[in-house]
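tool_call predict_complex ligand=magnesium ion
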Amino acid sequence: MAAGRSQGQDSGEGAAAVVARDVTMDFGTGKPAVDAVSFRLEQGRFLTILGPSGSGKTTLLRMIAGFDRPTRGQIMVGGKPVDAAPPHRRSVGMVFQKLALFPHMTAAENVAFPLKMRRFNPAGIAGRVRQFLDLVKLDGYGDRRVNALSGGQQQRVAIARALVFEPELLLLDEPLAALDRKLREEMQLEFRRIQHELGVTTINVTHDQREALVVSDEIIVMDGGRIQQQARPVALYREPANTFVAGFLGVSTFLQGVAAEGA
Ligand SMILES: Nc1ncnc2c1ncn2[C@@H]1O[C@H](COP(=O)(O)OP(=O)(O)OP(=O)(O)O)[C@@H](O)[C@H]1O
Ligand SMILES: [Mg+2]
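tool_result ok
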């Protein structure tokens, strides 16, 4: 099933899935939206970028996707600079908050779209579409128009569409934010299940601390465009690097200053 790899990669064994070096995005507003961010993400891992509104999460994700070019610094995906290939050839699947599905097309047509863009063998498309609709538990819904599906079902179509060409990297920018809590929690676990099943490296953006702690292999906490901490969920929770991380995660028992007897 490796046909979806868009290029013969020379990434080789051991290349990190994503490497960001000193990545800065300055929109000229006086303060960079993303400020000297460096991190490394190994293949097959599920990373969450967690931070409050305006902390630079979407800006960082858009640069990883290759939509925007950093003012400074470099991003490598699969061992290659992210802008080495044109967008439709990049091996990156994306699901955003606004799903950008084609509402008048059927679920199956939506999922087939990236395969057509990538000139997959037409004979194989229907079977592959069915396989990925199965994966997101939408078997039997292929002929349904997207605007006749529920919100959660539409999310699943978007996931299938992002994954059907087997990207090296899956980017999720708060795709669940519009859903009610119960459905959101179900879908969070779905993402995790599918990610495990396919082994695709995933970067998930959220400002939901609970989601981050439940679904991630590792978490990057951002504030003011800067990485405050990168760690596994348990380490983050047990040993927050600073008062921002502790406060944002709701670790309520951190102590500050020096205890003074009788104070
Ligand atoms: N095109 C732009 N031009 C100027 N400033 C921008 C632009 N895009 C984003 N910003 C600013 O950059 C900062 C980071 O924005 P970004 O969208 O990355 O935040 P975020 O962490 O995704 O927030 P949210 O959780 O609200 O989605 C904000 O201060 C925002 O106003
Ligand atoms: Mg955002």
